Amino acid sequence: MTTQRRASIALLLHCLPLLLLLVPLVASSAAILDIVTFILVYGLLAMSLNLLVGYTGMVSFGHAMFFASGAYAFCLGLQAGWNTPMAFVVAVGSSTVLAFLVGSVCVRLRETHFSFITLAVAMLLYNMIEIWAPVTGGDQGLNGMVREASLFGVSLSAGIPRYLFIVAVFCLSAFAMRGLVVSSFGATLRMIRDNESRCAYLGVNVYTTKLTAFALSAMFASVAGALATLLVAGAYPTMALWTTSGDAIVAILLGGSRVFYGPLAGAALLRLLIDGTTRYTGNTSLVLGLLILAIVLLVRKGPVDLLYERFQARRARRASTEQGGMPASVASGGGASMAMTTEG
């Protein structure tokens, strides 16, 4: 990675919190804050799933189980009288332990088998939530538990305090995930994605690395789940349903899996598509299905990935011209495709 590119990424990472903090100053209504909050929460869910999909090559259809476990554990902690930070930490910690237990079995499987075993476990959790009504509230969920959520005496149930809290947690989580992606651990994940057999031959403990990635991904998903309870004022069984995992996968597809903030852009695009089609056509599934078909059959990558790749190719051509016709792949230190593979 060039010094200029490092500086550009650092600038973007530092500007994102500032831009998010400026939203309440320019927002004309509470609805805008709710939309941005929704995008941040479900964007964090999609970004956590992308640690598996985009960086490790493991497609999970049951990622919503950790989203739901974080939400329910957080609400139950508040119901038990715990303060908000304690309930939040316990929710994330218990979901991470659940991920290690589930992942110890799931990551032994590959490709389709891995995808469907995660789906099966998620459906099991969904049915447990529905059946265990005395604790989980059954199909009614846990309504209104987050009204007790507060920090330093300030209620987090609505308004600007809730928005600022979600922005702060989102930014901390995003920075932590970015640190994982650019670390040697992230490089190992991409090696496993590209050639698992070669990684094993080089001495990498593939099982342990994949299990760690699975648990970390679940941990960030549970953070998103706990934040979601503040947004929807409770925890509900649909949080564990396969459609929630599907929404995260669609967000990754719409935004891109090889650029770090691609899933966040995909979550924003998905929300805009749903709101727009619901308001003007009422055919949300039709429009979304056609868009996904166009991306899969024609573009074959997320729009953010495509834009990034073209940007890298243009920079490579410019560098080649400045260095007197040196081949673009040499001038750019490996070309656009190499940058996409190694940096994510």
Descriptors:
two-stranded antiparallel sheet, two-stranded antiparallel ribbon, 4 strands, 76% helix, 344 residues, mainly alpha
SS strand fraction: under 5%
User: Average pLDDT value?
Assistant: 83
Task: Give the % helix.
Answer: over 70%
Strand order of the largest sheet: 1-4
Q: Structural class, from helix and strand content? A: mainly alpha
Shape: globular
As a whole number of angstroms, the C-alpha radius of gyration is: 21 Å
Distance between the termini: 12 Å
Number of discrete helical segments:
16
Model regions low in confidence, pLDDT < 50 over at least 5 residues: 328-344
**E-strand count:** 4
Would you list the SSEs in sequence order as H and E?
A: HHHHHHEEEHHHHEHHHHHH
Largest sheet: 2 strands, antiparallel
Describe the 3D structure:
Residues 328-344 have low confidence and may be disordered. With 344 residues, this protein is mainly α. The chain is built from 16 helices and 4 strands. The longest helix is centred in the middle third of the chain and has 27 residues, at 206-232. The strands form 2 sheets. A two-stranded antiparallel ribbon has the order 1-4. A two-stranded antiparallel ribbon has the order 2-3. A hairpin with a 2-residue loop joins strand 2 and strand 3 (154-155). Helix 7 (159-182) packs across helix 8. 41% of the residues are buried.
